[in-house]
Design goal:
It is a single chain. With about 120 residues, this protein is mainly alpha-helical. About 60% of the residues lie in helices and about 5% in strands. It has helices at about 5-20, 20-35, 40-60, 60-75, 90-100; strands spanning about 80-85, 85, 115. The chain has a three-stranded antiparallel beta sheet, with helices on one face. A hairpin with a 2-residue loop joins strand 1 (about 80-85) and strand 2.
Length: about 120
């Protein structure tokens, strides 16, 4: 079976995430994560965990969200802020600010991923 197109699914996930469609972002990124290798697999797992954390926030399951925020931020810390065609700095910073306040602030704080000057990394 051919590998899924990285660029298509990655950008689809970014678009879903920025639209606060976190489950859909998770699903898009998981499609390519399952076929990814090396460092890209780790990067995608961090992105998936970040989307899953926000999905938990929307559902009100803050304990699960806190664990996923921590895991995502730990995993993504190994990569440059601009990786695979996006600048995830604002999104990661929002997650850092929001996570410690899970029980204090029920509103959803999210800053979108920004486009970076290079296209998404082609890994296949």
């Amino acid at each position: 079976m051919p590998k899924p197109d990285y660029r298509t699914y990655f950008l689809e996930g970014v678009s879903h995430f920025n639209a606060r469609e976190f489950w859909e972002a998770h699903e898009s990124w998981e499609t390519i994560w399952l076929a990814a290798e090396s460092d890209v697999e780790q990067f995608l797992q961090g992105m998936i965990q970040l989307a899953a954390a926000y999905h938990h926030v929307k559902r009100g399951t803050h304990r699960g969200a806190a664990r996923l925020f921590e895991a995502a931020l730990r995993r993504l810390a190994a990569f440059p802020q601009r990786f695979s065609g996006i600048d995830r700095g604002a999104a990661v910073e929002a997650a850092r600010r929001w996570n410690p306040s899970l029980t204090e602030y029920p509103e959803l704080i999210l800053l979108p991923f920004q486009e970076a000057p290079v296209p998404p990394r082609e890994v296949w």
